[in-house]
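Dear colleague,

Thank you for sharing your sequence with our group. We've completed the structure prediction you requested, and as agreed, I am returning the results in plain text so they can be pasted directly into your records. Please verify that the sequence below matches your submission; if there's any discrepancy, let me know and we will rerun it promptly.
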Amino acid sequence: MRCCALWNLGGDDIVVVDDEQDIRETVQEYFEIHGFKVTQAAGGEDLRRIVEEEEIDLAILDINMPGEGGQTVCFEWTLVADMHFDILVFLVHVMFH
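Please find the predicted structure tokens below.
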């Protein structure tokens, strides 16, 4: 049994979409420890390419990315009738001063 809230996802393929590589790598490491296959995408264009090339079950999106942010990507994908993956989590980077 996985020690992860996503153990009931129904699939193991996740894409982490964030413009910050260190965040993508941290999230990838966490999910891989729990048995998921994780692909990284630096933005919406990368996500589209990945979706065209392979089956995914979940996209984890950053809200605040240069160019096309996570909200835009999420909105567009919810309009696609044949979308075959879930968008479950938004990553938000908070800076404390």
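Summary note from our side: Residues 21-33 form the longest helix (13 residues).

Kind regards,
the structure core
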